[in-house]
Request: fold
Amino acid sequence: MYKNIFKIIVIFVFGMAGGIFASQIVWPYFVQIPLAPVSAGKNKEIIIQENTALKEAVEKVEKSVVGIKIKTKDGETISGSGLAVTSDGLVVALSESVPKSGDFVFFVDGKTPKWQILKRDAGNNLVLIKLEEQNLETSGFADLENLKLGERVFLIGMIFEKTTPLKMVNEGIVKFFTRDYIRTNIFEKNTLAGSPLFNIKGELLGLNTIDSQGRVTAIPVSKIRQFLGF
Reply:
């Protein structure tokens, strides 16, 4: 009787061992189980694409930004930004950034060319300057008919670390807009007043004003084009 029980136990143990050996070693060798494909989520892919587009747009337009540094008769130093709109030296800026009196220096592509003021529209806070410089980088103008709420936008302005001009970028979205202005959700210091606002394609949307609370609101490109006459 004990011999029969012992035989049954031995058969059972060897049966289990054989089953484990077959299922874990032999069977996978003959049957290839396909692995589930691994892919990045759509949200991650979209973020990567948008960041690449932003970087390319910044590189496309950064050389068209003009830095402005003014020392007033009262000894106050004012800094701001403008935008080259023609390759032969026309620059548009905020009228408030270029007061009627003071010592002016314009920085463009590492140079400080001579300049003259051509015209001013105080009502729309715009001024047109002619720099004695050729072959300036420029940007295209956006069509405001295609502007959308929530559209991604960015600004590029020039700040000054002592006497060294540095470019600064900030990004956000269009919060709301009218025919007279474009309000963003960007907050900045007043030193970036006059910085151009671009869409993700690198097309000009407007020039930025900055209120006492730091809110960035752009004078739309439609008013700028009307002021320029093209």
Observations:
- Helices lie at 2-30, 42-61, 221-228.
- Residues 139-228 form a domain with the Thrombin, subunit H fold (CATH 2.40.10.10).
- Confidence is low (pLDDT under 50) at residues 25-31.
